[in-house]
Amino acid sequence: MSNNKKRILICGANGYIGVALYSYLKERGFTVLGIDNEMRERNVINIGSNSLTRNSKPSDFKLDISEDYRGFKEIVESFRPETIVNLAQQPSAPFSMIDADHAILSQKNNICGGMNILWAVKEVDPNIHIIQLGTAGEYPDWLYNGIEVPESSRIEVEYNKKKWIIPTPRYAGSWYHFSKLYSSYNSDYASRIWGLKVTDINQGIVYGHIGETRLDYDEYFGTVINRFVVQAVVGVPLTIYGTGEQTRSFIHLKNSIEAIELLINNPANIGEYRVIQQLTDIKRVSEIANIVKSITNCEIDNIENPRSEMEKNEFKFEANKLKTIGLKPVDMESEIKNLFNIISKYKENINKSVIWPKTKWK
Ligand code: USQ
Question: Residue range 10-34: average pLDDT?
Fold first, then answer.
């Protein structure tokens, strides 16, 4: 089937990944429909920040998939997508740790939105492939320290002298990350009982900028590479949380949307809950800071870690499926240089007061 016959419904089309994915898929000949509840924009304004770059809002419908099940189901019934990509997520771990309201907002939005997609697909057409945005953070540092994370949804273990097939062991490190963990279990279950086709992309930390997508750098919505580059451009020391010996996985925004296209074209099977490790680089936070320093000669500050995470860990991921279907990783160092050039153009817009982390895990 050629791309222009494929209909893709993007939930969360106005977000950091959504804006980039929406225009990329359109350019590639897909028929795309976007919906969004405009929560990201609202949340960023509410914490006193704003996107550094102009953010286009391509969504065709304003709708909250976590609240309006009937409205959402009508869209699925009339548009009849081959694939639903669910990016309609509150993505920030620190935001979810502010207080009870923010924890509940994160979990309600993420878990209920995912649940409504599962029900709509079951009721309208179980053949629709669901691609949901999971996170590599469902494999916490302490559980997989030095142990390779398998690229599997289930594993065999021996317990009580018997062999069991259980979901690949997961846990989380924030109320946000738990929302993703619960959604993974919901999708695994829906694939077993209703035969749904689900791909859970356990994605590393996304960085970079393309086209007209947003670029956040505040303590909540800025991810670490984007924040470090903004900090270097505006001339404040890079805020390494703790030792910087934390290892994390990363993927450039360009690779993230290319990977989603590859998964659209290579869907999960009926009844399959498929896990994909969507990441291309594994680095320590201090290594990232040193790459930025090599470009700008900026200062680096090791500040008290506001989070509850291991000071030093070794992450290893089995991540072969995307490579097998054709993903070509970008070069991280040259993309960070590229990002530096992009962000430099917006230097005047940087609000220094939103950079320092205020929310603590404990
Ligand atoms: N960090 C710093 N300094 C900063 C910001 C972060 O040292 O100024 C450190 C953090 O302590 C952490 C690492 O950098 O060890 C990553 O932090 P982050 O804020 O870039 O990313 P994280 O909170 O892990 O969440 C991001 C996305 C989330 C996605 C996740 C993938 O916001 O949506 O699920 O990356 S993963 O990290 O694999 O869980």
Answer: 98
